[in-house]
Amino acid sequence: MTNNIVCEKLGIKYPIIQGPMAFISSDERLVTAVSNAGGLGVLAVAFGPVERAIQIIRKTKAGTDKPFGVAIMPFIPTTPQLLDAIIGEKVPVAYISTHPRLFDNVPGFVERLKGAGVTVMAKACAVSEAITFDKLGIDFIVAKGYDGGGHVYSLTGSLVLIPQVVDAVSTPVIGASGIGDGRGIAAALMLGAKGAEIGSRFILANESPAHENFKKAIIEAKETDTVITGLCTGEACRQLKNKLSERLLKMEKELPEEEAIKEIMTISMGSLFKGAVEGEIQDQGAVLVGQVSGLLNKRQSVQEIMDELVSEYTELLRNAPKLLE
Length: 325
Ligand SMILES: Cc1cc2nc3c(=O)[nH]c(=O)nc-3n(C[C@H](O)[C@H](O)[C@H](O)COP(=O)(O)O)c2cc1C
Prior knowledge:
Layout: H1 5-10, E1 16-18, H2 28-36, E2 41-43, H3 50-63, E3 68-72, H4 79-88, E4 93-96, H5 106-115, E5 119-124, H6 127-136, E6 140-144, E7 150-152, H7 158-168, E8 173-176, H8 182-190, E9 195-198, H9 200-203, H10 212-220, E10 226-229, E11 236-240, H11 243-254, H12 257-268, H13 271-277, H14 302-319
Parallel strand pairs: 1-9, 2-3, 3-4, 4-5, 5-6, 6-8, 8-9
Antiparallel strand pairs: 7-11, 10-11
Helix pairs in contact: 2-3, 3-4, 8-14, 11-12
Bound molecules: flavin mononucleotide.
């Protein structure tokens, strides 16, 4: 797609972004595979030490000569150093992950990154967040609905969020959440997005380091098997139902709010590591995944996933005029 602004500006072949995923895209394996296959891989290294992030960025550069991104979370105290690393290592794209405490420092960050020639994209879960980013002059806004995996900062589904964000901002939009195949990409483009972000499907890729138990649970899950936990904490999270999620929901319902927030934050901390890295997916570990899990049922290489996505959405869009005959 040569006249697609996402491809043109990011220097990628297909307008497909791999959403940053803690412990899934926290090293170079998945990210280099996505970038080498013509999408944009995005590293999730903001939580660890900056020295480790620099090592991973260098390994990523060694593994691909294609553009890739690094996600930043501006509320994390080490963000200024991570920014130095992104600029110093000439990382092509910085990706601002959405977060309620996000806006404290964003304006200065965006100016620094843009001044250094870094393309900046940011994830918004609500129209109001998207409008804030629009005013900052960033390059792309990712509109993420509540159907997607991971943190959920609004309760609006992507089918309704994407066109509302498109209408509200002048920055080009990338649609996210619930996109599991070429139909989802074609739909996002029809809703006015210029590209699509995919998280959950890439967890199943051969190159994804997620624990085998974590992948198997996603393959077996139906669309009704996810829940949103921790709504009272402001850091709600979509994950598979298991004993951990049951406990978290019970606390939210039964404990006084302040106590519930404290307990839920304590228990949730480290739960993705237990699930995704250690493979404990019943009692202590969380399996973060979107409602699209019901569509995800096969193990493939990133190249196979990308080939399938691209042939599906191009075929659908090519044949779309027939729907009007
Ligand atoms: C296991 C997992 C971890 C995630 N971690 C992050 C993260 O660290 N930062 C972030 O901005 N988004 C994170 N996300 C959200 C994804 O980047 C992406 O927006 C989302 O997965 C898209 O929806 P989908 O799962 O329906 O494809 C995570 C999602 C999952 C499933």
